[in-house]
Amino acid sequence: MQLHEVRIVTSDDITVRSYVTFYWNGKRVREYNGNNINSSVKPNLAKTVKERNKLLKQLEFEVLKALESGHYPHDNKHTPVDISVEDHLDISTDYLLDWALEVKLNSDVSHYYRKNLKGIHRHFKAFLTKEELSSDITLIKRTRIEEFLQRYKSSGMYYMDRRRDLGVLFSLISREIEKPLQAVRETSTMKKKAKLHKIYEHEKMKLILNYLKDNNPNLHICALLCYGCFLRLGISAKMAARSAFKLSPHSALK
């Protein structure tokens, strides 16, 4: 009787799919559920890690039993593949983008980063056609990504930041489906150029202060205090005589 080694592959993250793996007819096989052994076991539908681990143990036992008895797969017409997909699971572009965003939002990232990811996710889905959203994400070409990123070319920094955000989602999906997704990485890059903030002219400053006065009185008071402090420093520096900054040899020694 041939000996089979069935191994569980899992993690402490409930959002990452777990499976059992083994070699069958010289090829590595992964089973995410009990479909191929006529079993209803579906570990990745579990709500907690503890429940999933229990179901994985059950799947491991039943798969090993089927292998040793020669009843794997249950339906000979259904050949197992390296990446099996549960019947209930949607692997469309639409689903995978939503899944990747949810995973990142549930991780330890800043509020600002969450906002950027939500924005690029929403804009990219609005850009894609219904056919593209319902099709395989590996079919999205580099030229299509380039077309989408054109809207962010107002500056190099803005473009590269949005390109990076979209790349984060694609990279996460690539690891999940274990297929290379190079469309974002192969898009053109832009050089980041930092721009200095220009000083507001006196008339423009008045407009801003008047706007704050009408729309946010508390912020208007804070702005007046800050503006007054900076204004006082500027006037004092201009009015100060050059001699005030000169030290005599005797005073320097004191």
TrEMBL record:
One of its GO terms (molecular function) is DNA binding. This is Phage integrase SAM-like domain-containing protein. It comes from Pedobacter roseus.
